[in-house]
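User: Hi! I'm working on a homework problem where we have to compare a predicted structure to a textbook description. Could you give me the structure for the chain below?
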Amino acid sequence: MRPRATTTAALLVAALTALGTASPAAHAAPATATPYDFNGDGRTDLAISAPDATVAGHAKAGAVSVVHGGSTGPKTSTRTLITQNTSGVPGTAEAGDAFGSSLASADLNTDGYADLLIGAPGEDTNGDSGNGTAVVVWGSKSGLSGARTLFNFSGRDSDHYGQALATGDFDDDGDLDVAVGSTGPVVLSVVDGPLTRTGAHNGGSGSQYDWWSSSPGVTHLTSADAPGDGRGPMVLHGRAAHTGKATTSLADLRIGNYTDWLQRMPAGYVSAAGDIDRDGHPDFAVGNDRETSADPEGAKGGKVTVVYGGPDGLAADRAPLVLTQDTAGVPGSSETGDRFGSGVALGDVNGDGYADLAVGTAGENSGAGAVTVLYGSASGLTTKGAKSFTQNTTGVPGSSEKGDLFGTRVVLTDHTGDGRADLSLSAPGENSGDGSVWFLRGTATGLTATGATSFGPTTAGVSTAGSPRFGTALAG
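Assistant: Happy to help. Predicted structure tokens:
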């Protein structure tokens, strides 16, 4: 049995409120499509958001560009631009919608192609300003086309609906579900699968924040669900009521009583899941890039905490591994404002079966930014062979400049189809807020800058009017 949540964890999410529930549909066969492989070619595609993008003259309406994977990496020649003015996408681009603030993917309708979820937390819906929405854009052999609005059973009770998104079989019934973070009375919603292009919704449930409805709510979600594992683990990020400090918890969404479902984790703002030691259980990397003056759970220059998983969620017999730039073997040194942990990702870069860790350090060198890669092993994460990359690294396009924020977001996934994870990373501050994205390839000997590429919003079809901050969210 899972331990009862501690007081701090309980402040993140309180008692369950069953809202808009319905009888589940007959179970569909589990989806097999790889997330973010929208055209089913065996290579993951890269979704890049610019929620501050201007669309048809509307500031901060938001846009998402999807660049398809290829044998040498993301191919900008085969990209798809999605806004709320795109044919088939519900809604209309309006100022402040922030379309693209969050991204997630899964084969939600079990047709063999991954679908894309996009959050627009600034959208006005149901006569409520900033109530928020999310849409599902459908994958197919020819890529993404057509969409429908994601069910929101809580109506006006969830503000900024869609500010966080994740997918997984959270109730272990064989169908993929969608978890949605928001603010207001309901801070977490679970929309039951399967989702279809036109069929009826299957209901869902939500968790209500009992103490402080004006809180930031659930700000980030990381799914650790694996098909057939009999569990539905999810990492929840938010802020504690009354203190405002970061709180992070591991939740088992199969448990209907949401007061007994949480295990407290080291606090942070972002996280990633993957099997670092290849023991069959998901491990977690939690990034907290704040100074202790901004968050008592932070550290000078920022930190990342690796928490190992076990058969009952978190491994009780293994202490978390705390990493900073002062940790032996980690390149650099901890300096105020480095923001080590601004982004984290887990993926197998060298193809040895162990998940490796990429850490963004967006504030390094006055905000020029950096990314560090560390490798997994049978004994867990090791600093042996760790490497750091900046725009001044030989082979990496561009040059490091103050305010670029290189490494704000990082992704480790296989864009080339060779079985090894590649690194994609963003610098939303590049070129005075236009933003840019880089690609570095994974090899049998680790990550390499040889053949690295980069591209900005214009190449991806995003307008540079008003500083779009291309790469604010990055997923693949």
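For your comparison, note the following. The helical segments are 7-12, 364-367, 430-433. Residues 1-31, 210-214 have pLDDT under 50 and may be disordered. Good luck with the assignment!
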